[in-house]
Design a protein that fits this description.
The structure holds 2 protein chains of 2 kinds.
Chain A: E1 9-13, E2 18-23, E3 31-38, E4 45-50, E5 53-56, E6 61-64, E7 70-75, E8 84-92, E9 105-110
Parallel strand pairs in A: 1-9
Antiparallel strand pairs in A: 2-7, 3-4, 3-8, 5-6, 6-7, 8-9
Chain B: E1 5-7, E2 10-13, E3 19-24, E4 31-38, E5 44-50, E6 53-56, E7 65-68, E8 75-79, E9 88-95, E10 104-105, E11 109-113
Parallel strand pairs in B: 2-11
Antiparallel strand pairs in B: 1-3, 3-8, 4-5, 4-9, 5-6, 7-8, 9-10, 9-11
Classes of the chains: A mainly beta, B mainly beta.
Chain lengths: 111, 114
């Protein structure tokens, strides 16, 4: 299973767009990229999943370049409530539950 | 709609004792997963149920851990006897898809073994 590398922490301000980049140089052909969000004392929450190019939902956008060796989670107009840990995971969609969880990126939003 | 619920939210037990964690998945989700984060480390997969059957238990650390899902509804994870290194947060998740895509997680049970 591919390993991912993310920033340990980031901070930004309310109303800004935040981009969190994840590196996955060893991504395999069948691997998908999945992002989760976790608030303190809660379980992770699925945000978005993609394979290539761009995926957008009501929460975020996921940008994946052609070589798929990295991906960027984009959170538009963040608020204080977006302060959380964000995890980037890579693995086969058929066995998504076995994804390797890294340390994630701790995002702190300031007023 | 109720999400995944776990009980208890916290448990403090002495080394050698037994603890049973419970998970109620989202109604209709046949797939149920257990994960844990031991102190200072990453979240790791423990096992996967499809209904009442263990589909994959490759992540179970040793035979002190026993997971059951009788009737294919709620699941229990028993640790017997508990050791100090079992301390951590145990998460349960459920999903419609067997792959685990878009899994919904519970709030976790924080287990402390002293």
């Amino acid at each position: 299973l591919a390993k991912t590398t993310q920033p340990i922490s980031m901070d930004s301000y309310e109303g800004q767009e935040v981009n969190i980049t994840c590196s996955h140089n060893n991504i395999a052909t069948n691997d998908y990229i999945t992002w989760y969000q976790q608030f303190p004392s809660q379980g992770p929450r699925f945000i978005i999943q993609g394979y290539k190019t761009k995926v957008t939902n009501e929460v975020a956008s996921l940008f994946i370049p052609a070589d798929r060796k990295s991906s960027t989670l984009s959170l538009p107009r963040v608020s204080l409530s977006d302060t959380a840990v964000y995890y980037c995971l890579v693995g086969e969609r058929d066995s998504n539950y076995q994804l390797i969880w890294g340390a994630g990126t701790k995002l702190i939003i300031k007023p | 709609e109720a999400g995944v619920t776990q009980f208890p939210s916290h448990s403090v037990i002495e080394k050698g004792q037994t603890v049973t964690l419970r998970c109620d998945p989202i109604s209709g989700h046949d797939n149920l997963y257990w994960y844990r984060r031991v102190m200072g480390k990453e979240i790791k997969f423990l096992l996967h149920f499809v209904k009442e059957s263990k589909q994959d238990e490759s992540g179970m650390p040793n035979n002190r851990f026993l997971a059951e899902r009788t009737g294919g509804t709620y699941s229990t994870l028993k640790v017997q006897p508990a050791e100090l290194e079992d301390s951590g947060v145990y998460f349960c998740a459920s999903s419609l898809f067997e792959s685990g895509t878009e899994a919904f997680f519970g709030q976790g049970t924080r287990l402390t073994v002293v």
